[in-house]
């Protein structure tokens, strides 16, 4: 009977796991957190260990999760792309060490961070990148060569390369790129990716490689799968060699002579976790000697010579001191829990969004409660539940008046959100103004949040059009403003009048219209007037537009106040027509440092090209640098880039990024 019960449970678990595998691997949209998923697989493994007769070859414990989708042509991997056995305690790592020793091996270990992205294989023939593929089910993956080529610092051409080389690496999305994408997706009312891993997988597995190119993906190469024409003895040697070929390899891969030292490194990587510019979900311990690896071999799912330690999600308790409600650009009221600061995944955290009243009600969070907070995907802090209510607390209710202007708030149809619909609500005007002046919109330098807030508080600005009437006298009343700063701001405001139409359209803050959609509108219709007169159907016909977006545009122009606003902007001399493509966007958001001697370009020319393509040219390398473009005899900047893990690109790769 015991066995029967176990069989039933195992079957149940397999169904749930397979279901979540499909969401995770094939749709890049998981419902469970990794640690919840891991708990399910551990339970299944434990059952199968206790009752080996329950093991079937189709069990998710016996094969690599995921399948190659029919969206891409298929690639059969010559060297299987395996998964890793995982450990959740240091004792499991010691047991792993014992198994290695039992095989007669005196091991040396390499420890690497386990990057949370998706696994790819890259093949090079005589130094040329000929194919890139995903893991799929480990044996058959997807051919994503075009998309792989769109990732800037995957080398397309190797110098002094062996005849044939296959490497394996993890394509990932840096946190900054993820946060930017998420914001963009939210602005356009698309369901944002849950975390950088899914964003990376979703961005790589696109039909249109241009989308992949725009997502800021990166790679760490962590294994040499095959090589012809060279011989290596250890894993660390292969990584040294791959590094010399200009691959970005695992950021640290130190060698240890016993498991305890390796465990110390696992701990150290765990402590550094929150400060890294990318997500890791564990650390991998690998046997360094390649001959020992062959000796140990693999099961049908993972190699016996490596093990992944998974870090537990960091959860801490704290006390909620307040629930603050702010009003966004579109009038939505967003509650935020403010709590005693706690240190989570490397940073101090004191606030977490509670999203809306429904979520507050379902958690029943009250001011004074002790709650558990976690950083979801290590990035965004989240209140996961109430441990206990504070004394004499009452359930929290959202305000019925706008905290900024006092107007009654409304519950719009089919929304959880409450909105203030007063068009003159100062909080909304403030958000609108900040958005209008922001870099991707009208790019008015010096008009940040602090200045915008003062302009509104002092009554100088009621709508964004008012900024074009600001006088020097008014600007000189602003905090810390002198002749020079006031003149600079005036100049920046003046200059913004000449911006291309897409910047203005984006700056207006039309719901669901991000910078890309704004550009499509501007390009398609050519003038503000033409956009205003376009029917919803005409707008919906634009490639890339959905019905919701078209409706938002129509609503915006039908709204009271819009006609006035456009008229005032026109009178102020703000440009209302589209004048062609002024510059490329291939390097948008990227900061690039040029160093060394390039063969086709002078440094000035390279920097001009960077700017023409929407990027920023900088003189010094920091963590914020996207790429270092290095030519011959590059010196300290190159070294610094390498030590910070900033990707280094060649002139050829640079031209490839520009599509030349
Ligand atoms: N949330 C969900 O619903 C859900 C569903 C399925 C899987 N998952 C997650 O995926 C995990 C299982 O996936 P898996 O089978 O791909 O195994 P895995 O992700 O735990 O480990 C194997 C992978 O690690 C990657 N990796 C990153 N850095 C590496 C390095 N330095 N050296 C070697 N490999 C490195 C490799 O690409 C390899 O494919 C689960 O533990 C779970 O966390 C979650
Ligand atoms: Zn209001």
Automatic annotation (TrEMBL):
GO terms for molecular function: DNA ligase (NAD+) activity. Its cofactor is Mg(2+); Mn(2+). InterPro entries: BRCT_dom, BRCT_dom_sf, DisA/LigA_HHH, DNA_ligase, DNA_ligase_AS, DNA_ligase_CS, DNAligase_adenylation, DNAligase_N. NAD(+) binds at residues 34-38, 83-84, 112, 135, 170, 286, 310. It comes from the Bacteria. Its EC number is 6.5.1.2. Pfam families: BRCT (PF00533), DNA_ligase_aden (PF01653), DNA_ligase_ZBD (PF03119), HHH_2 (PF12826), HHH_5 (PF14520), OB_DNA_ligase (PF03120). Zn(2+) binds at residues 402, 405, 425. Residues 582-660 form the BRCT domain. CDD domains: BRCT_DNA_ligase_like, LIGANc. Gene3D superfamilies: 5' to 3' exonuclease, C-terminal subdomain, 6.20.10.30, BRCT domain, DNA ligase/mRNA capping enzyme, Helix hairpin bin, Nucleic acid-binding proteins. The active site is at residue 114. It catalyses: NAD(+) + (deoxyribonucleotide)n-3'-hydroxyl + 5'-phospho-(deoxyribonucleotide)m = (deoxyribonucleotide)n+m + AMP + beta-nicotinamide D-nucleotide. Keywords: DNA damage, DNA repair, DNA replication, Ligase, Magnesium, Manganese, Metal-binding, NAD, Zinc. DNA ligase that catalyzes the formation of phosphodiester linkages between 5'-phosphoryl and 3'-hydroxyl groups in double-stranded DNA using NAD as a coenzyme and as the energy source for the reaction. It is essential for DNA replication and repair of damaged DNA. PANTHER family: CHROMOSOME TRANSMISSION FIDELITY FACTOR 18, DNA LIGASE. Belongs to the NAD-dependent DNA ligase family. LigA subfamily. This is DNA ligase.
